[in-house]
Amino acid sequence: MSEIKHLNTPLNPADLEKLQIGEKILLSGKIHTARDAAHQRLVELIKTGRSLPFDMRSAIIFYAGPAPARPGQIIGSIGPTSSCRMDKFTPALLAAGLKAMIGKGERSQAVVDALVAYQAVYFTAIGGAAVVAAQAVKSARIIAFEELGPEAIYELIVENFPVFVANDIRGNDIFRDGIARYNRE
Hints:
Layout lengths: L3 E5 L4 H6 L5 E10 L2 H12 L12 E3 L27 H6 L4 E4 L5 H10 L2 E4 L5 H6 L1 E8 L8 E15 L6 H11 L1
Parallel strand pairs: 1-2, 2-3, 3-4, 4-5
Antiparallel strand pairs: 2-7, 5-7, 6-7
């Protein structure tokens, strides 16, 4: 069983090079949420050469829409959504400098190929653990597309946010390669 690694944002290439599928990671620093509607708008901004609401270079996008915060809380439950819904937008965001995404479920081959081409990774978070994930959020604020409600882009500051490496920069895929690998160990 692998030990837990700690990563801070913004991510740097040296850290990404060392990651392998199946590793447990605790992320600390700034991440952004974005789902389908926000992804579509981000890609439109890129295509038209307009400014993005945050610096995409070395960024992490968490595929999530947080529930409203209860009084005294920073954020409500915040769990990952199915990543495949963002696959058609992902290569353009990776080309713009995105270095990691957090979601649930496997990615298309086009996304895996783009991860290799742009030296980025895909982390998976545990579905059903939205309350636990919310406890790692130390601050949250909407930075773009507020009219989208829960699909607005939030900037989150997280501390020890738990994820696993699902796809590394070499094209290894926990959903395709991992089962065989772990059966051998």
